[in-house]
Every structure is written in structure tokens, then in C-alpha cells.
């Protein structure tokens, strides 16, 4: 519905404004087919999404990747389509590696260490044996709300620190106040700043079509070949182990995201979309993460946490966010660092990058999975 404001002669005094807002009240009101249609035709972008839209997009992305990696032929077919945009053709040995990536994680081979077992000496008779506390390996996120932690009681004292304040020569304008040399002459001959006239001549306000933070064809090609080397592949296999769980949580991916949204409400829409962008790149384009039901939850925590720190100025404290995710602070730091190494510390982001993911990669992934998994349950109902 469009509302106009008219004067006596019937001419509009201000532009028309939309008075009907179709923001959803819950994730149950979002239909993925309608959302994909709106994104494809430009009706929605990263600036027009609701927070529930962002949660559904991230959940849909991860669940589609999991289902796609369980079918090696379909996964290779879709991956070849995406890599063809960068001018990359998968070699036969890469096809075999990609086809076995998901099966290796579902049934991981048992590795026997060739080194002998070392037996620690028993303690002396007069000393009681050391009791090692058992570590709680339960990976189930707590269902209770997070605890409100009090602020630190230590007071910061600046007396114990010595701050050295120095001014670079280019910013030191004391010489400009010399009585023997006028201020006007200095500014006119050699000003210590860029003049407004120079800025007007060299600055363009035209929108940038391809921002620096986007994945250009050359940069992605070099990164792709870097990940195919033996050293990098060996490192990635060890990093992925820290994301595996011993027990599957009783929450679906979307329910887990709703928990994060409830107790970490400061996370922005851009952070959720950026998390989906990075996970698509690592799982599909680079194929270094075989995503399964046992590691998707920690990848969610790590990707959202890294995206939040990269995009937002203010974010939740480490201990509070760890409580929301059902891990301790040490584990959260570990999976954060591992995720940064997996993505090669490339977390640069722009509005162009997020919209490009929504309009191309997310739409194509959803339509490809709908075509081949039409009879499967909706990703919102998957208990992964």
C-alpha cells in the first residue's frame, strides 16, 4: 500500500512511502522459495533483510552443504559450476579427493601410532597418587540462559605504565608559528596537509563496482592453488579435528542459531551473512571443510564469532558468548584460531561481497539442492 501527501492542487508534496512492512515475527513465517525469489529479483539485499531472514539463510546454506557433500557426484557437479566462474578446472586427482572428502569424515580411518607407549613411573609409596580431574566432554549446549558475569574488580592504574607521546615530523606545525615566516606563506608553498582543491580534483564519488575486499579472480586462483599443496592440506586436516563433537546436540542448526540470536542479540545481520559467505567458500570453492552433523555447531560458533569481531566495533564478551555456545573460553579461543587459519586470516568484507553471495552463490546453491533433493525435508526441520 502506497500513501501520498497532496496539496490543494493535487500535486504530491513528498515521495510515496511504503506503509506496509512484511517483516516476519518468527522464522516459521519465512518460506525459503519466496526468499530466494526476492533475492534473485533484487527485492531484498543485505540492507533489506530481517534478522530472521539472515538466520534462515545461514541455516539453509549449512544444511544444503551437508546434504550436498553426502552425494559426491552432485557435489562435484555443483563445485565445477562455481569454479568455472573463476576459470578453474578441477583436475582428475582433485575430483577423487573431493569425492572422498565426505566419506572419510563419516567413517574416519583408525590411525595407529607407530611410537611405543610410554608408561609414567608410579608415585612413591608415601605419596598419594595424583587425582586428575575428569574433563567434561559433553558437547551439548546448555539449555539454561547464560549467566550474567560481573565486571572485573581490578582497577587500571596508569602510574605503572609510561606512555611515550611523540608527534611525527609531518604533523609538527610548531615551525609554522615562527614570527619570521608567515603562516600564509607556508600553507601556500608547502602545506602540511592535502588541500581541498586537490581532493576535489582527485576524489570521485562514483560507486565502486568491484571493491578491494572482494575475491577477485587472480587472488582466488592463487589461494585455490595454495590450498591444494601438501603442507596446507596436512595442516587443515589437523585443524578440522578440533571442531568435531563427541555427542550430537539435541538442537537443530536453526534452533542453535535462534539460541545465539536470543542471548547474543547484538550480532548484526551482516555478521550472519558474512559467516555464510565464508563457510560457502571454505566448503564448496576450496573444499577444505567436510561439513557434517558433528562439526557444524562449532563451525557456526567460530565463523559467527570471527565475523562479529571483523565487522562490528562492539561485541559480546568472550566468556558470555562461550556460555551461549555451550563451550568454555579455552575451547572458543581454540576454534576461533583454527577457523582463522582455515580461511587464511581473510575476513575482509564489503557490501558488494555480501550481496554478491546472496544473489549468485546462495540462490544457485538453494535451487541446485531443491532440484536434486526435492523430496527431502526442509532444512529448517532437519535435526542436524
Your description of this structure?
With 384 residues, the chain is an all-alpha fold. It has a domain at 49-103 and 213-381: Cyclin A, domain 1 (Orthogonal Bundle), CATH 1.10.472.10. The protein is built from 15 helices and two strands. The chain has helices at 32-40, 51-69, 72-83, 92-99, 101-106, 183-189, 196-202, 217-227, 230-241, 253-263, 269-285, 296-311, 318-325, 329-342, 351-372; strands at 2-3, 17-18. Helix 2 (51-69) packs antiparallel against helix 10 and helix 2 crosses helix 15 (351-372). It is globular. The two termini are 40 Å apart. Mean pLDDT is 75; it is low at 95-125, 127-183 and 378-384.
List the SSEs and their pairings:
Layout: E1 2-3, E2 17-18, H1 32-40, H2 51-69, H3 72-83, H4 92-99, H5 101-106, H6 183-189, H7 196-202, H8 217-227, H9 230-241, H10 253-263, H11 269-285, H12 296-311, H13 318-325, H14 329-342, H15 351-372
Antiparallel strand pairs: 1-2
Helix pairs in contact: 1-15, 2-10, 2-11, 2-15, 11-12, 11-15, 12-14
Q: Determine the number of helices (DSSP H or I, runs of at least 4 residues).
A: 15
Beta-strand percentage range? under 5%
Percent of residues in helices: 40-55%
**Biggest β-sheet strands, sense, barrel:** 2 strands, antiparallel
The gross shape turns out to be globular
Specify Rg, calculated over alpha carbons.
Answer: 27 Å
Amino acid at each position: 500500500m502506497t500513501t501520498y501527501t497532496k496539496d490543494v492542487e493535487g500535486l504530491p508534496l513528498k515521495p510515496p512511502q511504503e506503509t506496509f512492512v512484511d517483516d516476519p515475527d518468527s522464522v516459521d513465517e519465512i518460506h525459503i522459495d519466496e526468499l530466494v525469489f526476492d533475492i534473485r529479483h533484487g527485492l531484498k539485499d543485505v540492507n533489506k533483510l530481517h534478522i530472521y531472514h539472515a538466520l534462515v539463510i545461514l541455516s539453509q546454506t549449512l544444511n544444503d552443504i551437508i546434504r550436498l557433500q553426502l552425494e559426491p557426484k552432485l557435489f562435484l557437479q555443483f563445485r565445477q559450476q562455481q569454479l568455472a566462474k573463476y576459470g578453474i578446472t578441477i583436475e582428475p586427482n582433485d575430483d577423487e579427493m573431493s569425492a572422498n572428502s565426505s566419506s572419510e569424515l563419516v567413517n574416519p580411518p583408525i590411525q595407529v601410532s607407530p611410537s611405543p607407549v610410554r608408561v609414567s613411573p608410579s608415585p612413591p609409596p608415601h605419596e598419594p597418587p595424583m587425582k586428575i580431574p575428569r574433563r567434561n566432554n559433553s558437547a551439548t549446549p546448555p539449555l539454561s540462559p547464560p549467566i550474567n558475569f560481573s565486571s572485573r574488580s581490578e582497577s587500571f592504574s596508569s602510574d605503572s605504565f609510561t606512555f611515550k607521546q611523540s608527534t611525527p615530523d609531518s604533523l609538527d606545525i610548531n615551525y609554522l608559528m615562527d614570527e619570521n615566516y608567515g603562516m600564509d606563506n607556508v600553507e601556500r608553498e608547502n602545506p602540511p596537509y592535502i588541500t581541498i582543491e586537490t581532493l576535489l580534483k582527485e576524489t570521485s564519488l562514483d560507486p565502486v563496482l568491484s571493491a578491494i575486499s572482494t575475491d577477485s579472480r587472480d587472488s582466488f586462483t592463487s589461494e585455490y592453488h595454495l590450498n591444494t599443496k601438501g603442507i596446507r592440506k596436512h595442516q587443515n586436516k589437523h585443524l578440522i579435528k578440533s571442531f568435531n563433537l563427541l555427542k550430537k546436540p539435541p538442537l537443530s542448526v536453526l534452533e542453535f542459531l535462534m539460541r545465539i540470536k536470543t542471548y547474543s542479540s547484538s550480532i548484526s545481520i551482516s555478521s550472519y551473512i558474512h559467516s555464510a559467505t565464508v563457510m560457502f567458500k571454505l566448503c564448496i570453492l576450496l573444499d577444505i571443510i567436510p561439513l557434517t552433523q558433528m562439526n557444524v555447531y562449532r563451525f557456526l560458533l567460530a565463523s559467527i564469532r570471527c565475523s562479529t569481531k571483523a565487522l562490528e566495533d562492539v561485541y559480546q564478551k568472550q566468556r558470555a558468548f562461550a556460555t551461549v555456545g555451550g563451550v568454555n573460553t579455552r575451547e572458543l579461543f581454540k576454534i576461533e584460531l583454527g577457523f582463522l587459519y582455515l580461511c587464511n586470516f581473510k575476513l575482509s568484507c564489503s557490501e558488494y561481497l555480501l550481496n554478491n553471495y546472496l544473489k549468485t552463490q546462495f540462490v544457485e546453491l538453494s535451487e541446485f539442492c531443491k532440484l536434486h533433493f526435492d523430496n527431502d525435508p526442509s532444512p529448517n526441520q532437519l535435526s542436524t
